[in-house]
Please model this.
Amino acid sequence: MSYKDMLICKNLQINDKGHLCFAGIDTLELAKQYGTPTYFMDEDRIREMCNIYKSALEDAFKEKGRAIYASKAASFKQMYRIMKEEDMFCDVVSVGEIYTAIKAEFPPEKLYFHSNNKTDYDIEFAIKNNVGFFVIDNTEELLAIDRIAEKLNKQPQIIIRVTPGIDTHTFEAVATGKVDSKFGFAIETGAADEITKLALSLKNIKFMGFHCHVGSQLFDSDVYIRSAEIMLNYIIHVRDDFGFSASMLDLGGGYGVRYLETDPTIDIYENIITVGKYVKDFCEKNNLELMQISFEPGRSIVADAGLTLYTVGNVKKIPGFINYVSCDGGMADNVRFAMYEAPYTVLPAGDMLKNGDMKSSIVGRCCESGDVIQPDVLMPSDIKRGDIVAVCTTGAYNYSMASNYNRLPKPQVVMIRNGKTYVAVKGETLDDLIDCDI
Model:
């Protein structure tokens, strides 16, 4: 197995020493400088992806296109600073994300507040901090917003999350647009009509339009076009039957990234242009005024901008059964395989010119048999203690899902921009682990 064929991201290279390079820097030098485990993020790639989305939406919809970064993918202060500089909007799913964004001086009026269970505290916090939009996920939430807004003498803007009833044939854990999803209001059951009528009756909210999100890891625009057709027909129904003209339609996120060499590449710009043509043609044919159209990319903004480096500890070979390559991280810093068997490309950072000839399970240090980063990985048969392994495409849902399981400190996040590195999130210390203990 040649590792040259496994350079799945454009910011991966092999130098003349046979070392893996990330964002132009030798990963062995990165590991030497910062230690392991460490999350590295290519800031130039993040900014590039922001601009791809913004350019595509501008070309597709002119001033009515809007790019909203789904910050649950990677949420920390520097990320919100980058999004502010790139003139992006952001969606947030908790008071913690709102607070982080505000502390990073991200404009709160450019935040969209998601979540299927906003507490009264969450709602009041968001209203008091002038969060721009609430994405409504259930009836109790809408009534609570109306009640709290009246108390605060505010009129927050809301959009209603609708489930269009589409099966995306993606991972069950990331499919969100089906009728039986825990998110939103199904058109098919009449729930969307009921919440729409309720929203139109309330005086303390400003009803702007509709939102849908059908899933993640989509490699073409078929699902977007199918959901856009359903949503636009629903908007016509609401206009004709309820007298409400939606000014916003948020089509959610979901374009895919490459985790393995077998994953396809996708031209996001061209796909958005395709969706834009469909939406504009539909509106023209159906006498529907084009509303603001938003996309909510998260994973596709940051995933391949990330790389995690680990140091090998033990190599356990059980002849005739399995080989284990244990590293100094694990499910505490990357829980995605344990959660839903997420695939990853794993590379021997210092031995990229060798052949992978030993099938191995790359496992972590947690006291848990399910602590697997990736099974069935081909590693060099002479891999040993002290070697560096790299896990690619870890920019999304790795740091944000990290835990202190087994009382392990969370790793640092190091950003790379124009060949220079800096720490964006400090690694936790042992004192940090007990800081909240009494």
Observations:
- Confidence is low (pLDDT under 50) at residues 170-178.
